[in-house]
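Entry under discussion copied across for reference:
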Amino acid sequence: MSVLQLNNVGYTYDGKKKVLDNINYDFEKGKVYAIVGKSGAGKTTLLSLLSGLTTPSSGDILFNGKSIKKTDRYKYRSRDVGVVFQSFNLLPHMTAIENVVLSMDVSNKKIKNKKQHAITLFEKVALGEEHAKRRILKLSGGEQQRVAIARALSYDPDIILADEPTGNLDLSTQEEVINIFKRLADEEEKCVIIVTHSPDVANMVDEIYQLAPYKKASKTTENN
């Protein structure tokens, strides 16, 4: 059964500019997906819709068979979906472990020992305890992205959304990060959805969805 479904989803900016039209995608647990397409195809808009930050102009998005329009959107965003960004979006004045613990606090999910839970998450993304105590700016780009993944996992969401997660990384680190996502899907049944421009990343996932820029249908003229 799909954990997330898009049924005839469309989106229009300001009621005028249509970006997405009649999108039908199914996402299952235990798989890594890539959403690819040229600039302007609506990849970022689609990610915003999947995360519950934006509401479709038409159609519906179902989480575990229920419309997210009818769910607690804050709970959905803070517990059911974890988001990983290209620019990491970590708080630089905090340590790695403080960033992850803060995410747990925001989710309001009951976790007995948050610091120990964070250490366990760091182990999952191949970071040691010494990294956990460092301030974010003392970490490399690849290490910061691992912290960002640990933060997204902090409240155990079913879905991980990743927006160009390897865009600022070299090829070797890129492969390591994608392998982390694959392990999360294989071993923990996470549904991982990656928006990417990279053919290398797309070639590493289980399934690819290709988004094409929306084109308004042209009018036909009949010759009498």
Notes: The first strand starts at residue 2 and ends at 13. The domain at 32-52+77-210 is CATH 3.40.50.300 (Rossmann fold). Residues 171-188 form the longest helix (18 residues).
